[in-house]
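Case study B.
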Amino acid sequence: MSKTLFNSGHTACAGCGQSMAARLVIDAAGPNTIIVNNTGCLEVFSTKYPETSWGVPFIHSLFENAAAVASGVESAIKYLGKADEINIIAQAGDGGTADIGLQALSGMLERGHNILYVCYDNEAYMNTGVQRSGLTPFDTNTTTSPVGSISSGNLRPKKPVPEIANAHGIPYVATASAGFPQDLQRKVKKAISIKGPKYIQVHVPCPLGWRHETNLTINVAKLAVETGLYPLIEYENCIISARRQITPKPVEEYLKVQGRFKHLLKKPEEIKKIQDIADNNIKKYGLKVEQQQISPSA
Amino acid sequence: MKELLEGSLAVAEVVRLCRPGVISAYPITPQTHIVEELAQIVANGKLNAQFVNVESEHSAASTVLGSVACGVRSYTATSSQGLFLMAEVLYNIAGMRLPVIMTTAARAISAPINIWNDHQDVVSLRDSGWIQLHAEDIQEAVDLHLIAYRLGEDKSIMLPVMVCMDGFILTHGLETVNMPSQEEVDKFLPPYKAPYKLDVTNPLTLGPLVDPEFYTEARFALNETHKEALALIPKITSEFSNVFGRNYNGLVEEYQMKDAERVIVAMGSVCGTIKDVIDELRKKGKKVGLLKVTSLRPFPSSHIYEALKNATKVAVIDRALSLGSFAPLASEIKAVFFGKVKKPKVISSFIVGLGGRDITRESIKEIFRLLTGKEKQGEFIDLKPELLKESYE
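Model:
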């Protein structure tokens, strides 16, 4: 078995997409990396005292401040004259990034710190019991966007955090998926080779919150990409430099394997709305394989 | 060297002499002059430090948390609402045992919004785990920063320290300050050597999840360290005295206390006014004195007990409230004497100087006068009853 910097024995749920992605990220970044982690599932399941899964220096402070703590870490590393030797990764879940941590993230991006920020997007507050976040998709059934007689779940589409990151004029932004591990690792390596603030948002299925079988994590992640609901895009200097092209599958294939969307299956008008979101993405980002490619996808 | 300096500039200068590697702050009145001056010092190349302009006080505290976790001496400053926005991070910094040093320009809390001085902000943070020191004047504010770094970074302590200086009164006031030289500072304050830090050659996990099996012990240890800090403070102030010639006597000051019958207990800049009034009353043969509490945390209860046990009547001045209960410092002074045989007959509690209302010599004389009578509980001095008559109707 190859050596990993994120060791087994942690307490993540079976089929946890975040634990897979976190291992892929740190193994791609390598041992000369400091991790700054927001509060959330990842920190909870990987650092229960007196044990830790981390083979690199790791610090967790609070729910919303990984970007700010990482800014301090980066400033200290710069002061110590080790800026060229050490990678700094700030990482958080979708709530810690898109909601409570957005201000600190914006500050970190605007100040130009040499930090890679990784958002593990499992599309709700899973650590506290599946409450909706700013990255919860439209019509998702969560504990705070429940389906009811007058509601079909979450009222709003996902907050466009990669585009918000891009608006800061930073050199690298990408979306990735636990369903495409090599692509994720390539993006992490590319990101840390670039100086300045970088943002990667990784789609990570959560069997508990999404209510899918634990052996389907990778399949579900792939379906999100293949339907056009989670486009894999890379921006370099704010311009799209690559995207994963697909032969789009109907969104129903993605929705029907997850309990969080079960209520939609008898509502074709709601499925149509979600298909529209996918179609929009396909058009906006040029995801269809027939279309001309800007650069080869991974 | 003696210089006429504004308090903020004097603090910025002593911070420079402490050689922090990272400074991070967010502007708030009346802290701004300190960080503006430090920004200029860094811009002029007079201090090799990273100056991080953050987007909130929450991030200022988080940034220095991160830099101290890398073993780099760091500094921040704030006030009032900014301190409250930091509050979550401050508890976290103390629990993580990271010796961040911060100046707090003590200021009132909104609502109503008020930018002037009292102690509601800092006193509200007394349970955060930070060591909390209160300066009487600008010289003391300067000196307490040196003591703060030395104390907080001691391997046996490893706690953050907040140096409180009264907003405007000390931050914007001018005073002749004996500014230490770099040689003196270097002699007293060695470079920071962190016993644990984020280091790729020795990977550690900081800030883990701690369950009921271990949490109590982590908090117990934190509390024990405050006791150890109390024991260490006199050693550090005595060393300080050897290098700089000024004696802070374990961070409790007794002024005209030897035969004092009526004593005021207070913190911060009001102590200067109290000393003036004492000098005046002493000339008239009144046996009055002052006990100045410089270290609110750790709370020097034994020292306070010894200093006050022979006084007949004690007045505790609070410049903050614990709404719905006894005033904060008064309740702690009373707790010192709970169950003791030898104790003052009266421990009265007075509220004064909220939101920048001047505490005059007359205010202090009124307190000494009221102390001749019955025990007072949270008595407001200089209250304007005519302003309380307004109604909604």
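The CA atoms of residues 106 and 166 of chain B lie 5 Å apart. The remaining cases will be described in the next quarterly update.
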